[in-house]
Amino acid sequence: MSLRTPLCELFGIELPIVQAPVSYAPALVAAVSNAGGLGMIQLSWLDSDGAREVIRETRRLTDRPFGVNLVLEWPQDERLELSLEEGVRIVSLFWGDPSPYIARAHEAGGTALCTVGSAAEAREVVAAGADAVVAQGWEAGGHVRGEVATLPLVPTVVDAVAPVPVVAAGGIADGRGLAAALALGAAGAWVGTRFVASHESLAHDIYKQRLVAAGTDDTYHGHFYSYGWKLGTPYRVIRSKEAWNPLHLIAGGARKGDEEKYARGFSVYGGQGVDKIKEILGAGQIVQRLMRFDHLR
Fold it and tell me: Which of 57, 103, 160, 245 has the fewest beta carbons closer than 10 A?
């Protein structure tokens, strides 16, 4: 199925689906891009050698566009320069002042999209030069910028920054979610948790199975503790039921190779769309199913 929106025109992609930066796995990023969407590398915590390796391996696996994500809670100048040197021209920015990073991306002929949690923040990043805005609703998994749900947030942001393309994020895990996002005026969907539960994801198998088993009411939005982030940073997770973690609120992203106790004991990032995840699939197949609006998985 073909469905081109202004987002597709902006980034040179075929389908209005962006893989949220849930991983630095080249196989995942490339599979999404090869399927017609936009794969996104989470580059924020890799060292220079690791970042170059991931970008080059991704490029070996796809000749389609892909981007990198930088979390601005930490200095990212070096990673941005490295990405631009390696030919990446799509930069995603989150959680901080994006102005200098947007300017640098534009100097190199690139484009920048910024994640926001409110219409006011959306206007600010567009004034700073953002080429597209990701409107992240409260339903999103992982670290959550705002406190407004996706349904009311997206049209408010669309109206605030038109004609700049807006990507809807938070709770989208199937074709119905994508169709709803487009109906709200978004130019595409930002999908994270659904791609964590893919064969190519670096998530631990226990993490993936917990996503498959979880229902919408199994997620928790809190700020007790988030591994590697400042105390008090809000996030949404799937609760842990393991006895060794009595608070069930410590947020982590258990990866392949982690000890089983870690994978079972930590609450793992996941959004409220998790109920739509019924099986582990290849990332390309997930893209194909997101383009089906027939209420099937």
Answer: 103
**Token pair 């910028």: residue:** 145
The verdict on 143 and 239 lying in the same domain is no
Sign of the C-alpha dihedral, residues 144, 146, 148, 150? negative
Does one domain contain both 246 and 178?
A: no
In terms of Cα–Cα distance, which of 51, 116, 35 is closest to 88? 51
Q: How far is it, in rounded angstroms, from Cα 148 to Cα 200?
A: 31
Number of domains in the chain: 2
Q: What is the pLDDT of residue 224?
A: 72
Q: Phi/psi class of residue 125: alpha, beta or left (left: φ > 0; alpha: ψ in -120 to 50)?
A: alpha
CA 266 to chain centroid, in Å, comes to: 20
Q: Are 271 and 193 in contact (CB under 8 A)?
A: yes
Task: Show the domain range for 236.
Answer: 205-275
- For tokens 């075929």, the residue is 14
DSSP string, 81-111: HHHHHTT--EEEEESS--HHHHHHHHHTT-E
pLDDT reported for residue 296: 44
**pLDDT for the residue numbered 46:** 96
Residue 290 is encoded by which pair of tokens?
A: 């997101």
Are 108 and 182 contained in the same domain? yes
User: Is this structure's pTM higher than 0.90?
Assistant: yes
pLDDT at 140: 97
Which residue is associated with the tokens 């002042």? 97
- The per-residue pLDDT for 297 is 43
Is residue 296 one of the residues assigned to a domain?
A: no
Dump the DSSP string for 203-257. B-HHHHHHHHH--GGGEEEE-S-BTTS-TT--EEEEPP--TT-TT---EE--BTT
Tokens of 42: 């989470």
- What are residue 80's phi and psi, to 5 degrees? -65, -45
